[in-house]
Amino acid sequence: MDRLLAYFGPFFQTARAALIRLGGLAVLLLNPKRAVAILWKRQHSTLGPARGSAGMGLPSAMKPETVDTIAATAPVVAPRAQDITKTFYDGMLKDHKSLLAYFNPAHNVPISTLQPDALAASVVAYAINIRDLSPLLVPKGPVAAICHRHCALCVVPPQYVVVHDNLMAAVGKILGNAVTPQIAAAWSEAVLFLAKACIDTEESLYKMAEQRSGGWSGLETFEVVEIKELAKDIKSFSFKAPRGSPIFGQAFEFTGGQYLSLKVDPEGDGLTAPRHYTVTSPPGADHLQCTVKKIQGGKVSTYLHEKVTVGDKVQLTAPFGIFTLESAAEPAVLMSAGIGVTPMVNFSKALGANVKLAVHVDRAPETAAYRDLFAASGQPLLEKYTKSGGRVSPKELVRETVEKAGVGNNFYICGPPSWMEEVSAELVKAGAKSVETEVFGSQLAQSGCPFKTSGCPFKGAA
Ligand SMILES: Cc1cc2nc3c(=O)[nH]c(=O)nc-3n(C[C@H](O)[C@H](O)[C@H](O)COP(=O)(O)OP(=O)(O)OC[C@H]3O[C@@H](n4cnc5c(N)ncnc54)[C@H](O)[C@@H]3O)c2cc1C
Ligand code: HEM
């Protein structure tokens, strides 16, 4: 068979290419509007011309002596990694003020250390795995998490040069004379090699996003078409591309569980970083919707709840994210707490009778969104309300869950990071088939890899 394919394969390929060209010609003649839409959709991006790694002079392989130097210096760099990344962010954000439009200050010093922690963990994991990077490259693994987040934020290739230069400056500042020219050259090459891998992966994700129905890359203007109050301090916001937009009137394809990123401008300086919100409209709908909990002291969620009205314009990036179903055909258990219910909305619809149990923990029925959706789903439910019933320990919650649904399920969890860590650990202990989590913050700083049943190279994570 292989020999037949080898012999006739080129013929079939030529014939297929000719048929595709003929099909394209037919679409062009019979339905020129559709042909223009297809061509336009492929190109629709607001990212600007700097795309992909071609022409940047980035290394596509590391020299063997670079690999040896990184492996040898990893134990020296690891204990100082957080000092390096804190210095890196401080220097970079002072010198490149426009980057404040990408980095949420609530994730950085002095408010929190999420950004330096996530970058430090990724640098250490990279150095430790430098001889075999495959654990970092697994599906839904660390590189996938980083690249999806970067695409959601519209990161573009020239910014990698800025990151490289500032990271190298921070390494020099923190490690001082320990950084010989040979060590500096090795780390520089390793960072540029990683940059190339990320840029190439991100370019393929951007292309994927552009080619989906209703797809685009970069920030696109949308109009708020509906706002609904779903529960105390929780509102859903629906968006449509306005008339004249290249994606006006299209159906929006994405994978259930993915998040859109929303950019608003409360300060009028364009420097508020986009925030991510799980899409709660179904894939293929004529609008995109997200569901937002108002966070005390939270800049964007408060602005959305208090200031945004129907008819306002916002900017969105296309849905990205790796918290997606392993399979809609396999039995699953959905476990959420608070606003962590949002990914479960599309999971519940896609899984149907394969949801063996939907577990939700909330303060009270009036603070829980989507109760009606789950009640109507016919799926077995387990609701816990802490105001009336007190806090149920993760151990007890998992015991009850496993008693009702068994362990042979894919478990999808979304809620506060520490709760998810405890619930995941109990599920893994109980022998759960697979466990995946989504952090509404920094996945890599607060939880490590999303999958909990196989090893994660992020040893430093919570
Ligand atoms: C993948 C993903 C999916 C998500 N999906 C959803 C979703 O479906 N629904 C949802 O509601 N959220 C979701 N989130 C969370 C969302 O992206 C935002 O993080 C959330 O809305 C808070 O943003 P904010 O701008 O209101 O708060 P921020 O301004 O980012 O503040 C965050 C926290 O920092 C504190 N803080 C901010 N500034 C200061 C300061 N100067 N001093 C002291 N403390 C400060 C705030 O009080 C707040 O507690 C998701 C996040 C991710 C990563
Ligand atoms: C090789 C270089 C890079 C590495 C190793 C890296 C690593 C990371 C990691 C680990 C995260 C956290 C992801 C998560 O927890 O889910 C992250 C987030 C982020 N990255 Fe990068 N990154 C790199 C380059 C860049 C570049 C070039 C930019 C563009 C300026 C950028 C902008 C961001 C932003 C804005 C976030 C979100 C930060 C936040 O929480 O507010 N990164 N990156």
UniProtKB/TrEMBL annotation:
Cofactor requirements of the protein? heme b
Residue stretches in coiled coil:
none
EC number(s) for this protein? Answer: 1.14.12.17
Report keywords, A-Z.
Detoxification, Heme, Iron, Metal-binding, NAD, NADP
Catalytic activity, reaction form: 2 nitric oxide + NADPH + 2 O2 = 2 nitrate + NADP(+) + H(+); 2 nitric oxide + NADH + 2 O2 = 2 nitrate + NAD(+) + H(+)
Q: Which residues form the Globin domain?
A: 61-203
Domain FAD-binding FR-type: start-end pairs: 217-326
The protein in question is named nitric oxide dioxygenase
Q: What organism, scientifically named, is this protein from? A: Prorocentrum cordatum
